[in-house]
User: What shape does this take?
Amino acid sequence: MKYLDYLNGSITPYHAVDITAKKLLENGFQELSFQSKWSLEPSKAYFIKWGYTTLFAFRTPKQVNSSIFAKLALAHTDFPALKVTPNACRFESGVQLVHSEIYGSPIFYSWLDRDLGCGGVLVFEKDNQIQHRLVQASQKFRIPELSIHLQRGVNQEGRKVDAQKGLDVFWSSSEKDSLDSWVKQQLSPEEKLLDYDLRFYDAELASLGGFHEEWVYSGRIDNLASCHAALEALLATDSAENYISGFCLFNHEEIGSETKEGAQSLFLKMTLDQIIKALNISEQCTPSFLEKSFFVSMDMAHALNPVYPEKHDPKHAPILGQGIVLKQNAQMRYATDVFSSAVFKQICSKAGVSYQNFISRNNLPCGSTIGPSVSSTLGVSTVDIGEPMLSMHSIREMSSVQDHQQMIKFLASLFKDF
Ligand SMILES: [Zn+2]
Assistant: This one.
C-alpha cells in the first residue's frame, strides 16, 4: 500500500488498525478471534485485532515443531492529538467551539492556524447490541492564532499556549451546527449514541518535499511510518522456514502503554500462547521459545537538525536519509543490548541496509519506547530502532523517503530466513 495513502487514511488509531486489517485481508491473511477455536496450519498468514486499536499479524513457519520461535516487529498506532471531551460544545461570540483534552505530548503551537480534521469512533446501541462505527468529518476546522498586534513580544518570547483555553477548535459559525449535531447525523434513528472517541488531526494530506522529493511531510509519521514499514515487509515476504514472522502494533505508547491495548498488557503474550497451542506444540510459549525469539521495537528517532547541532551528541547524531537508527542507552531506556545490536548489525550487513547510531546526550533525558516494557515482560531479546525524523510531535512532521525504504528492506530481511 502506498505510504502516503496509509498516512492520510490513518487519522486515528482505530483507522490505522482498520486500514491495516483490510490490507491484510486483501492479501490472504485470515482474521482470528479469541471467541472461536484456532486451528492454524503451517505456511499460512493470520491476524487478530484487540480493542480495535491494536493488531497482531503473523505468518506460521513452513516447518512446525517444538523448536520454532518468533521474529516480530513492534510499533505503536497512536500519536499526539486533541481528544474531544464529553461535553465539548459551546457557542460564544458567533462561534461554535469544541473543547478537547490533550492526548500525549503534542507541540501546542504547531496546531494553530492549521486545517484540522475530526474523526474517530462512535459507540451506539442498536437492537440491544453495542456496536461501533468509524467516522470522519470532511469539513476543515481551525484554531486561529492571535494577531501579532495583540501579542507584540511573540517572536522574542516564544508562543506559549494555554492548554485549557488556547486549543479550543472553531467548528462553525452557526449555533445549530455543533459537533454534537454532526455526531447525531452519523447515526440512523434506531441507533442510540452511547459514547464517542473523536480526535482532531492535521487535515493536510501527506506529501513529498525537497528539491528531489526526498522528504516526507505529514502528520502522524511517529509512528505510522513504522506500522506501514512492518505491514509492507510482511506482505512482501513468505513464511519463514522455522519461525513465526510478524508484527504487533500497540495503542497507547504516547501515554505510557499501561492499558489493555498497550504494550504493557497481556495481549502479545496471550496471543503467542494461543498460537503455540493451536500449532499443537505446547500449552503455552516455552522458555526455550522465548529465549530463541527476537523482537525489533520500532519507533521514530531524532535526526540532527543542522541548525541546532548542540542538541545531539556529536558522534551519535543521525542524519536524515542516511539509514535506520540503532538506539542504545546505558540506563536501558531502550531495550537494545550488546547481543541484540549484534543481531541487528548482522541483518543490516547481509541485507545491504545502512544504519546510524543514536545515543542521547548525557545532559538531556533520554526518551523511551515500547521495547523495554515488552522485552522485560517476556524476556525476549529486543533491539530498538527507528527512522530518523525532524519535528517529532509537531502536527506536521518530516522524515526521509530513503530511510523508509531502508526500514522495509531491513524488516523483509528479518522476516526471511538467514
Ligand atoms: Zn513514537
